[in-house]
Amino acid sequence: MDDVDRKIINEAQSCFPITRRPYLALGERLGMSEEAIIKKVKYLKEEGIIRRIGGSLNSRKLNFTSTLCAARVPEDRIEMFVEKVNSFKGVTHNYLRNNNYNIWFTFIAPDINCIENALKDISDSTGIDEILNMPAVRMFKIKVDFEV
Asked: Where are the domains of the chain?
């Protein structure tokens, strides 16, 4: 990853243009062409540095349920477990932590039953049965940018 990649990531995290041609607007802010931005973003996605570009919506206002999950996954099974978890569209974040419960992820779905069924599917298909389901009781929204 070079300095230009870092500039694009840092600028796009909180200031992604909501316009018909967002990459043109982003390029104008960074002194680059639209084509150069698109090429860089494509590369960053292919490399797995950027996983997703999209809005963050208030799930409660859409009548959805969210939960924070933590799983205890043996080191040699992490990749397989994460691949399964990430196959669900409702998974919005997935982190490796230095903790006994080493994989943490958030899950959003129409209701708690959908989440519980998905967690059962994850457990059944991976053999990992230590998955904590901690539904949101109170919502705290913070702005998080990761300086690259």
From this structure: 3-46, 60-135
Q: Secondary structure of the chain: what % helix, strand, coil (to 5)? A: 45, 15, 40
* CA dihedral sign, ordered 8, 11, 16, 17: negative
How many Cβ atoms are within 10 Å of 3's Cβ, its own excluded? Answer: 8
* CA 99 – CA 129 distance, rounded (Å): 17
CA-based nearest residue to 118, from 107, 129, 132:
107
Q: What is the domain class of 60-135 according to CATH? A: alpha beta
pLDDT tens-place values along the chain, 148 residues long: 899 999 999 998 878 999 999 999 999 999 999 999 999 999 999 988 887 787 776 777 778 888 999 999 999 999 999 999 999 989 988 899 999 999 999 999 999 999 999 999 999 999 999 999 998 777 666 666 667 7
